[in-house]
Amino acid sequence: MSAADPMLEAERVLRICSACMYCDGLCPVFPAIDGKHSFSLSDVSYLSNLCHNCQGCWHDCQYAPPHPFAVNLPATFAELRQHSYADHLWPPALGRVFRASSVAVPATVVLALLITFGLVLGTDSPATLLTAHAGAGAFYRVLPWPAMAGLAGATFGWAVIAVTSATLRYWHTIAPQVTIREIVPALPVALSDIITVRHLGGGGPGCHDHDERTSQRRRILHHLTAGGFVLSGLSTIVASAYHHLLGVMAPYPVASLPVMLGLGGGVTMTIGAVGLLGLEAWADPAPSDRGETRLNVAFLILLALVGASGLAVLGFRSTPAMGLLLTTHLGLVFGLFAALPFSKALHAPFRAAALLRAAIDSRRSTLARTPEASGDTP
Ligand code: SF4
Ligand code: SF4
């Protein structure tokens, strides 16, 4: 997308769509713009994150190029999504880092790797990286537990604080008047839409991965990636409980709960991220935005590396390669946490917020049509 002012372009395109409404039924964006003739910054920020980039409205659009209206809603929203992430990060310097995220994400990961290797080498001789370590506590003979837990806690805590503050600022932009009494009853619908990624179905048949044909590939790969990330997180939590509550130190047997969760998470996250990278490479660039594509690719490569390096640690943990593989994996994990606030990871809470507002709006219009449902009738 190349419009000089993406906000003006969004208003222009959304006015055309609002008058046309041919794509009503493809996704929640169209019911949300039905009957609207002007679009504020809040509206546009909300709508751009409500779009799941299924590209259905690009392939169905009768006003897409070469028509002089040149409507390209997926590319318009893709550019605006990046503005919405950068504009809500705090402090503002973090927004500037986000705008350079295709460099900042790899640079952060390299820095995290250097720090992790520096700590390992500063604690012991270089030979520790290529020495077989066995038995309980073997991982902590490579990187002592206080250093491992300290780096993990610092980077994860930073990610939670920065992502939460950006999400709350975004929510204030898109839903300034919404009360908690409206949020609670809308949560089940919003949670269902978030977990199932229903709208990646493009109204039913799926996404357009490359051309006018549709498939469920993107939705399935998205589930694998997100599910793998969650399983890997659960594995870390369970391992922590083993360590602190049961007094049993890693590495754990293959048949133990932390290893089974980590194995399932590593395999599914790696397959999902590599598959999504394949779809990025195959995608039609016309309804995309190069900035968003770079953002996606940087994040997916990082997820794939984290998943694959975790599997390598598991596969070679009783060999002399364990120290090198474990240090690399930990550096990648710390780099992932540190880079989360200025990576594509922001799309998860921002889209969740947009889906919650959509569920609230939908409930409001249902109550307006059937006032007895609100309990306000005599
Ligand atoms: S994307 Fe095109 S066809 Fe669909 S509602 Fe907008 S203008 Fe109409
Ligand atoms: S690309 Fe898909 S999700 Fe986005 S506005 Fe078009 S139909 Fe809706």
From TrEMBL:
Keyword entries, A-Z: Membrane, Transmembrane, Transmembrane helix
Transferase among keywords: no
Domain of life of the source: Bacteria
TM spans (from-to): 103-122, 142-163, 220-242, 262-283, 295-316, 322-342
Name under which the protein is recorded: Tricarballylate utilization 4Fe-4S protein TcuB
